[in-house]
Amino acid sequence: MKEAIAGKINVEIKDESGMVL
Fold first, then answer.
1. CA atoms within 13 Å, Cβ hemisphere of 4
2. 20: CB partners within 8 A, 6+ apart
3. Helix (H/G/I), strand (E/B), else coil: 1
4. 1-21 burial, b if ≥16 CB within 10 A, otherwise e?
5. What distance, in Å, lies between the first and last C-alpha atoms of the chain?
6. How does pLDDT run across 1-19, given as a tens digit for each residue?
7. In whole angstroms, what is the distance from residue 12 CA to residue 10 CA?
8. What distance in Å separates the CA atoms of residue 2 and residue 20, rounded to the nearest whole number?
9. How many angstroms separate the CA atoms of 12 and 20, rounded?
10. CA-to-CA distance for 9 and 12, rounded, in angstroms?
C-alpha cells in the first residue's frame, strides 16, 4: 500500500507547490 501513501504525499506536494510535478 506504499503506492497509495506516495500518491497522497504527491497530492500534498502538488497542492503546496501549486503545480503538478
1. 1
2. 14
3. coil
4. eeeeeeeeeeeeeeeeeeeee
5. 22
6. 687 787 777 777 776 666 6
7. 5
8. 20
9. 11
10. 5
Q: At 5, which amino acid appears?
A: I
Note whether 7 and 14 are within 8 A (CB).
Answer: no
Q: What is the pLDDT, as a whole number, of residue 7?
A: 72
Helices and strands (H and E) in the chain: how many: 1, 0
Query: What whole-number distance in Å separates Cα of residue 14 and Cα of residue 1?
Result: 20
State if pTM tops 0.85: no
